[in-house]
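Fig. S4 source data, part A: sequence.
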Amino acid sequence: MGLAKTCEPQQIEPRISRLWEDGRYFTPDVDHQRKPFVIIMPPPNVTGELHMGHALTATLEDIMIRWHRMKGDAALWLPGVDHAGIATQVVVERQLANEGLTRHDLGRERFAERMWDWVAKSRGAIMHQHQRLGISCDWTRERFTLDEGPCKAVHTTFVNLYNKGLIYRGNRIISWCPRCHTALSDLEVEHKDLGGHLYYIKYPMARGKGSVIVATTRPETMLGDTAVAVNPEDAKYKKLIGRKVKLPIANRTIPIIGDSAVELEFGTGALKITPAHDPVDFAMAERHDLPLINVLNDDGTMNNNAGSYQGYDRFDCREAVISQLRKEDLLEKIEPYSHSVGHCNRCNTIIEPWASEQWFVKTDTLARPAIEAVEDDRIKIIPEQFTKVYLHWMKNIRDWCISRQLWWGHPIPVWYCHDCSELTVSMDTPSSCNGCGSSQIHQDPDVLDTWFSSALWPHSTLGWPDNTEDLGYFYPTSVMETGYDILFFWVARMIMMGIENTGDIPFHTVYLHGLIRDETGDKMSKIKGNVINPIEVIEQYGADAIRFATTMGTSPGNDVRLSYQRLEAGRNFANKLWNAARFVIQSAENHPNDTTLNPDSLPTEDKWILGRMERTIVRVNELLEDYQFGEAERQIHDFIWGEFCDWYIELAKLRLRSGTTPSPMPVLLHVLDTSLRLLHPFMPFVTEELWQNLPSKDGRASSIAIAPFPIASNEYIDPRVESEMNVVIEIIRGLRNARAEHKVEVSKWIEAYIRADDESAIKPHATAIEALGKVRPLSIQQKSESSISTDNAKIIVLADADVVIPMAGMVDVNAERQRIKEEMAACETQCTRLEERLSKEDFLSKAPAHVIEKEREKLVSIKSRLEKLKQRSSELG
């Protein structure tokens, strides 16, 4: 096929994707002779396009799966998508709103049809976008949370837990979205700091004079108060415990109770207790047997318990209540107050905590074995700091609300009888009531929380509850890789449900990556306009570049700052590798007989690059074993760019041009081949394309995706060779830096002398030093015997050698003296002006701090420049 002159991802990537697909390299068989390595993809929501967080997740998982596949493991990466109950329903409802319709206009059946139409479109888009990223999933095993298999797993789990008494229906506090008309999971609530007010309200004593003043941020909920609480240790209220106060506006009497949960420092130390609308108040009500009074409808308006305010919007009611309190002289004062307020992360509506009858899972029983699995190291969490976070949360876990008031999702498998109070909980749709046999039954209208089905993902995707071949071989899975922000909402629940359903842990390792942020560290959002679309980036830079940008140098649990500079760096690296490989491949065509590597007759630079390669292989494998993917990638990048391309290929060119034997071709090909295999898990497209163009394909794998990952033999690691080459490289680098510093023309040769600690180690490399340092004549002497004059010369002091460059051979000394003299004078003038300005009290007291700091930095920079000019002046004599 031949290798193009330039790396063009748009041309390469579709062709390589077809090669992988046709080869079925990513579909492992059940093979008990091989060790399985399994990742179950965190299922993206079927809400539309993937974002940069998905790109990071997919890249990290692909690095792991490609590495293990190349190691010979039966590597399964099972992809899938999540029905994402509320999120997907919101998307489709917005589409309907644009048509002037609501889901109620369609009815459940037609609305479900619209949802499935959207799912079909979105699933295809997600698969295509993942394939554009180059991920090596087994698409033949792709799953959807509403597929028949996962549905069976969900129903089986619900029925089993219900029969064990671990699922119950009860009236408890949940987070409610008045816009979406459903309970929310904690993950679906986004807390934002808002500027509000603290309202101080007088609650008159029921008997006698005086009042208790309470502070609240939500005065409209006082209509549902059932007590006032004080801390029993609070001396000013201790004697009031057991007495009653009049609830303003509602004209009810409520008790004063003592509870240690009351914070002495908040407000006045006395709290209004509204159990139906606050989780802390609800818990207090359970301890003191207080009634629950709900004053809100599901749309956020006030209900009949709000009396004359029935029908008011909750925020309009707040203003009206404040106005009435003010008229009745019951409002003590109002203070500004900033506090955290929960918002629905789907529609940005302020949520309402309220007591509602919902289905719950008793989690304390399920949590115990999940805690033990982490404590005894059967499950390892990376980075380790999140282990304590996990254990703390699990040991303080609360019951899990699993019902949602939606039309999209897994229907709750519970039927209610019209003729008796018995519930029928069944895997299959029953025809009659289990209690009385009546046919007058109806199914619970709610659906299950999306996280309920997601909690079963590692085993439901492999066929559970059926005893499938895949489940027996691939479960437990190996690694669950996801963001640290869903450690509790998903990872912990997978561990609980995996152990409960299968008797075994769902995975051995949890790898938590950070969040993708913009280059300033801000969270990406469409509102801020700092979102980067991965598909647009692929079109511009290529998939390998986006993979490089999201993972290079990153570490577990740390956020990634993504910038276009990082994307350009990824593209530049791909281009650098391409150009180097093209040179090697073309050189191999011109030297077809020089392909056999003979370890017994290698020059020093050949031994050096082979040794550096082996050190890189050892370090990369260690880092991959330790899940340090970003550092492993950096090591590969530095070896390929900094040692192979910048140094060895340049040295090899000299030998190829001169025909010096032995030929460097065998080493060039061997190092290129090995480098491509090292880099392949990170940048699969460019490495596959170059691999396919390497000569001597006999005996090689048909794709680099199934070629063996490099393992070091340690045959060439030689500290003496490395030390010798390091001296040579430092000499050439010093010569190049001197030329650049003094702006020597590229075509001009300069004179240089080397005073070496070991002359014999440097002299064999004289030709390379001359050619790559553009030096002629070159003299190499033993440092102890050197008589080289250092007058009017630039001296470069290195660890094992000094380089002396006569200035007269590099620049016009007189002209350079004059130029330096003029530049020094200009610097001194600037220094004097800045020092005077920074010494004036008037400037220091009036100028902004950042302006003063900028002037100080400028002074430091100019003084540094002045010192360098003085050094150059002394070199000229």
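Fig. S4 source data, part B ends here. The chain has 26 helices and 29 strands.
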